[in-house]
Amino acid sequence: MKGNDLTKDKPQGSQSLFRGLQLLEILSNYPNGCPLALLSELSQMNKSTVHRLLQGLHSCGYVKPAPAAGSYRLTTKLIAIGQKSLSSLNIIHVAAPHLESLNITTGETVNFSSREDDHAILIYKLEPTTGMMRTRAYIGQHMPLYCSAMGKIYMAYGQSSYIEEYWHSHQDQIQQLTRNTITNIELMYKELELIKTQGFAMDKEENELGVSCIAVPVFDIHQRVSYSVSISLSTAKLKQIGEKTLIKPLKEAAKSISEELGLTT
């Protein structure tokens, strides 16, 4: 690999970033470690620059000294990042046909999320095929657990001890966004019990007035809920067609995805 392959045509002001990524690419070819002198030669950077960049990558946990003196190697942190990326790509490949079918059947906005730490993250979205309403949600958006339908799914099907922990650690974020937002932990406990009983969660204008959302869990082979499917639409439209019209196809789509992930019933 030529030393300037990665850095040519790079945006201004990002030289250090691209040089650091260049070193990561070089190190990926040396699983047992690469000497500083060789890294300098391959990257066409002077040793002091390479050493400075390595120190930064080391402090962030991406590289570490190798057994051979003066050599460096990648850490498993990059594997973890790669696995997360691969997992997202794989799940979308699996889920997309079922989500597209749900979108066509209902005509409404279809959302697909994964759980990431203390929030849900939207990883796939299909716009409605009927009507004019477009939600503000976008792929990559982080959604709070307490006021989103998919977020409440993750709380309902997660560890019971987590709810109190989440409530106390996010006190500064749990806010009354609308008159329907649940900000009392006891009311949330009742809401989550109801979700587990009925098998779906609702955002009844708790995040945005005029917009409602229905979400269901997606289970994997270990009965864990790491993904959720939801339908968003105007509250007026939901009242017109009724919840049951959407819940049945929504549950069917989630069941199909769950089965492809290895769930057996």
TrEMBL record:
Name the record gives this protein: IclR family transcriptional regulator
Q: Residue ranges of the IclR-ED domain?
A: 77-263
Alphabetical UniProt keywords: DNA-binding, Transcription, Transcription regulation
PROSITE patterns per UniProt: HTH_ICLR (PS51077), ICLR_ED (PS51078)
The record's InterPro entries line, in alphabetical order, gives: GAF-like_dom_sf, HTH_MetabolicPath_Reg, Tscrpt_reg_IclR_C, Tscrpt_reg_IclR_N, WH-like_DNA-bd_sf, WH_DNA-bd_sf
Q: Which domain of life is it from?
A: Bacteria
| A GO molecular-function annotation | DNA binding
Its BP terms in the Gene Ontology are: negative regulation of DNA-templated transcription
Q: Which organism is it from?
A: Budvicia aquatica
Residue ranges constituting the HTH iclR-type domain according to the UniProt record: 14-76
Matching Pfam families, A to Z? Answer: HTH_IclR, IclR_C
